[in-house]
Protein 1
Amino acid sequence: MESTLNFLDQIDWKSLWEIIRDIVLPHSGTLILNCILFLFLGFIIAIVYCIVLYRKGIFKRTPKYYNWAVKLYIPLLIIGMLYVFGQWGIIRGVYRIINVERPIVVTNIYKGTLEYFFDNEQEKNKFLISLQLLAMETESSSKDFITLLKSHYEKKETKDQSFIGSVENKLATFFINHYGEEIYTYALYNMITTAAGKGAHVDVSDSFSYEQFKVAIDFLLEVGHQDLEKIILEKLDNWLQDVLSSQYYSIIKSLLILLILIMIIPFIEYFIYKKWIAPKYNTQIS
């Protein structure tokens, strides 16, 4: 009881009411329609299920009092299945409402996040532009790096006339020509992760791989700072969709497990009756 009260105290009732007021109530028709449809579906399934069980003799017992008592399964099954399908209807309605309002929710999340980091729109745009400039500078530096290495090995090749030295220089030149940008990006990545790792005393490369770093650099080079915002919103929208779907199917899975438990209770009780109670009662009569 105490843990339940603590849980209720931790709920942000103000935020919960704002969500219900601003998102759910304007679409109350969708919520009511889903509830009615699922309750109707649950009622039909419950009636059909009870009829099938009755015809199969699941609700019949030899003792008269037992035979009457077991008929209580019929209203209990109907109530139980209506409860499950009613919950399903509410959850389905809320899921559809939030899904419709998802773009607005995503925009509000994005704006709320920006307000936390930036004081105004100008600071945000300045930051986004700086990200792209950083990527451009990385690309420019990689080209300068390749030119410098080529010059180094060309000078070295003229000085080193030995066969082995010539082969080494040619191999080095080949890799620079074909993988120069990759080498520079990898070297830059290692410098950043090493510096960050020493400062934080952790291995940063475990949480931020080289592949992720390279994808981020290439991505920043491909898009403008205005397109970057659109892509962030798209990614955030996909993330929210995944979260909503995950939560929805997780709750529905729990409801389906509860529904299965409700539906198999008569079979379990009937099995117990047939296995142990009925033989004893028949022995007493004979």
Protein 2
Amino acid sequence: MQANWEPRYSRSCHRIPWQQYATVEASLRHFSYNVVALHGCLQSEIQMVEKLGHVMDKVEELGKMSQFREIRDDDDEIVVTFERPQINTAKNDMSSYGGAE
């Protein structure tokens, strides 16, 4: 059975262009490898953005920890204190995301 656009060949298959079919097959295979590789790159980039979001959350948390905090006394007076951030634990948390070592 042959496609409509192909010329009719003899029954002995001597005139079928197998070499051209093999060339087209190799080109399509190479193209599909590139498409699969590109798909993998795009998926890994999305995962990297998510990973970067986790690191940014940790940095934001460190920034909030190092700010001045207002604490109200029993007399409703505002006392400003400075809380020292826990650098060691935050550094360990960030190293698990590929941040500071």
